[in-house]
Structure formats: structure tokens, C-alpha cells
């Protein structure tokens, strides 16, 4: 049973305990946010890797341009 389902079950029960229901709901929400931000951290790492690759390519292009300029002169 998911945390949200458990929260809703507590809402429908006769022995509703607002503190327990709130804790259950918040625990589920925290887990959701952790998964979401973990996914974003992975994307950020991928983007940083691509940025490093682009910087390396930029350096290579500058070197090639300099070599071509030196050959033409």
C-alpha cells in the first residue's frame, strides 16, 4: 500500500489520528521529493559532462585554427 493510500485510509477510518495521518503523508512526500531530486542530480551530472566535452572540442577547434593559420602564413 502506498503512503498516499495509507493516508486516505486513515482519513476514512473512525479512529482518525491527524498526527499519524500527517506523518504518513509527509513521509511519502519526502520520499517522492528525494526520487525527483535524485533524477535531477543525474541530469545535472550528464549536462556537466557534456559541457566538459564541448570545452574540449572548443580547445581542439582553436588548436586546429591556429595550425591552419600558421600553415597559411
Automatic annotation (TrEMBL):
<keyword id="KW-0175">Coiled coil</keyword>
<protein>
    <submittedName>
        <fullName>9699_t:CDS:1</fullName>
    </submittedName>
</protein>
<feature type="coiled-coil region">
    <location>
        <begin position="40"/>
        <end position="67"/>
    </location>
</feature>
Amino acid at each position: 500500500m502506498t503512503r498516499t493510500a495509507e493516508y486516505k485510509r486513515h482519513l476514512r477510518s473512525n479512529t482518525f489520528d491527524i498526527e499519524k495521518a500527517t506523518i504518513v503523508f509527509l513521509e511519502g512526500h519526502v520520499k517522492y521529493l528525494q526520487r525527483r531530486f535524485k533524477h535531477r542530480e543525474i541530469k545535472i551530472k550528464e549536462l556537466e559532462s557534456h559541457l566538459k566535452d564541448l570545452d574540449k572540442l572548443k580547445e581542439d577547434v582553436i588548436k586546429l585554427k591556429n595550425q591552419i593559420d600558421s600553415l597559411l602564413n
